[in-house]
Here is the input.
Amino acid sequence: MKLIHKFKSLNYDKRENKQITHLILHYTALPSIEDSIKYLCESKNKVSCHYIISQNGKIYNLVNDKYRAWHAGHSEWLFEKDINSASIGIELDFSPNHNNNQFSKLLIFSLISLIKYLKKKYNIDKKNILGHSDIAPYRKIDPGKKFPWKKLYNLNLSYSPVKIKNSEIKKLKIWFKKNLIYTDKKKILIMLSIIGYDISKSINDKKFYRILLKNYRNHFIQKSHYKNSTIKLINFAEQHLCSLLLTKNKKLNN
Here is the structure.
């Protein structure tokens, strides 16, 4: 894997003594790799990333891993609120509104190589390989509905829930009932919160609730027949949550 160090961004600071535990995937939303590199390197824009990958698969390293690049903005995942200090940001040369509106094979091939390298180097859990839309669901939609998460799942480079026994799902349903949680919305928000999402704006705002569900679907439920079904979303989220919890319990017991 070849890295290009020709361009450097000045938009970074110290990591505040945090380990690198997350990889965050973005898309540039700009027309070309040249436009994106220029934008990310200009100090007045106060934004950057560690790596950016072009449509032809070239990987540019704009900020050294040891520094805190400014790619995540106001964001959070589980208990981590300073995502920039705990992550590496990877930008992809993609825009839904310009000619670079497809994730090319060369781009994805290079992304897979880069993720493998960083995941191994920093011992990053695949559950922490996320999209900008996961950590900032009310502001961002990237890497978007076209991003091929399934390719990463198949290579064990990103998390996908495993099939859970009905008996385990039943325990979750019983817990909901014992705690008087009956509405679909409350069930979904509790599950997404435990999975990692910030649900704060969704509790009392229908618009933000819809945005949150859309971003969850665009990452984890890309099958078209799941898109607009609340029941299927709840069933999937139940599998997702139980899969996470059982994985954690197994690790604790080993």
In short: The longest strand covers residues 22-27. The CA atoms of residues 138 and 208 lie 6 Å apart.
